[in-house]
Amino acid sequence: MADGTSLKKASKSELFSWGANSYGQLCCGHKNDVSFPENVGASCHLKNSVVAAIDGGGGHTAIITGYYFTYEEVISTAAGLRHSLVALANGSVWSWGANKKGQLGIGKTGGNCSTPQQVLFSDGQQIIEVVAGAYHSAVLTSHVFCWGSNQHGQCGKPPDIHSTEHQIFIKPQLIGGLLTSVTVTQVHTGWSHLLAVTEDIKVFSWGRADYGQLGLGDDVVQLGFSSEPAEIVHVRGANQVLCGAEHNMALLDSGSVMTWGWNEHGICGSEDETRNVHQPSVVSKLHDYIASLIGCGGGQSFAVVKG
C-alpha cells in the first residue's frame, strides 16, 4: 500500500513510476517529485531485467526481479512503511528492512536487515499472498497469520492498553476467532488494521479503530481497537475490497462504491469532509455512475466509472 507513490508495469514489462520522490522511492535516478509517469528502466538498473512483482511502501518501492530469487517463482510481494516481504512458490516467506517492532518475523527485534531473511513460517499450506502494514506483516494461506506490532490488536491478541511498551510478536500468529473455521481468500492491510475476505464473500476487520477504519460503528471507534475479527455486514458480497492507510473502499455488485475510515482531505468522498466515516457508506457523488474498478493509496481514492 503505497503512500504518495504510484507504480505501473506496462505490457512489454517496462516499469513506470510517479508521485512523491523525496527519498528516491520512484527509482528514477533523482529525488524530484514526478507528476507524469516516468520510465524507470536503466536509471534503476532494471534494463533487460524481468520484473516479477512490484509494490509501493511508505517511503520505498519493492521491485522483485530474479536477482535474489532465481530458484523459485515469486507468488506475492508487499512493501510496508520501512520493510518488505516476498512469498515464494516453495512456501517460504522472506523479509528485509526495519525490524524494530518485529515486523520481519525472524524471531527477534531490532536492527535493519539489508538482505532477505527467512520468516519463521511453516504452515504447510500454499501461500496466496503477503501484506505489510506500518509495523506488522501478514501471510495468507486459507488462514491469516500476523506478526510484528500488536499495539492495536493487529496480531489478533488483546493489546495491553495500560503498558507503555507495545506488545510485539516476533513469529507469525494465527488469527482465530470468527476466521478459525472459514476459508479466507483475500487479506488487505492499512497502516495498523486489516481486512479479510472469506470464501463466501464476507468481509472481516480487526486492528486500529479510532478513525472508523474497521467499519464497525461508534462503539468500536470509542474503544480504539478490536483484536477479534468482526464481520462488516454492510459490504457483504463486495466484488473488490481495498485498504488505504487508515481508510477502506469496497466495490459492490451494483457498481456502487462504499468507503469508510479516515476522511481528512475528503478521501472517503463523503459530503462532510470534517468527519471520519465510522461505517461503510456509499459515495453519493458517484450515484449516477457504475464503477468497474477501485483503487486507493495512503490518502487518495480512485474509481473507474461509466455513466
From TrEMBL:
<keyword id="KW-0677">Repeat</keyword>
<feature type="repeat" description="RCC1">
    <location>
        <begin position="91"/>
        <end position="143"/>
    </location>
</feature>
<dbReference type="Pfam" id="PF25390">
    <property type="entry name" value="WD40_RLD"/>
</dbReference>
<feature type="domain" description="RCC1-like">
    <location>
        <begin position="72"/>
        <end position="303"/>
    </location>
</feature>
<feature type="repeat" description="RCC1">
    <location>
        <begin position="255"/>
        <end position="307"/>
    </location>
</feature>
<dbReference type="InterPro" id="IPR000408">
    <property type="entry name" value="Reg_chr_condens"/>
</dbReference>
<dbReference type="Pfam" id="PF00415">
    <property type="entry name" value="RCC1"/>
</dbReference>
<feature type="repeat" description="RCC1">
    <location>
        <begin position="201"/>
        <end position="254"/>
    </location>
</feature>
<dbReference type="InterPro" id="IPR009091">
    <property type="entry name" value="RCC1/BLIP-II"/>
</dbReference>
<protein>
    <recommendedName>
        <fullName>RCC1-like domain-containing protein</fullName>
    </recommendedName>
</protein>
<dbReference type="InterPro" id="IPR058923">
    <property type="entry name" value="RCC1-like_dom"/>
</dbReference>
<dbReference type="InterPro" id="IPR051625">
    <property type="entry name" value="Signaling_Regulatory_Domain"/>
</dbReference>
<feature type="repeat" description="RCC1">
    <location>
        <begin position="13"/>
        <end position="67"/>
    </location>
</feature>
<feature type="repeat" description="RCC1">
    <location>
        <begin position="142"/>
        <end position="200"/>
    </location>
</feature>
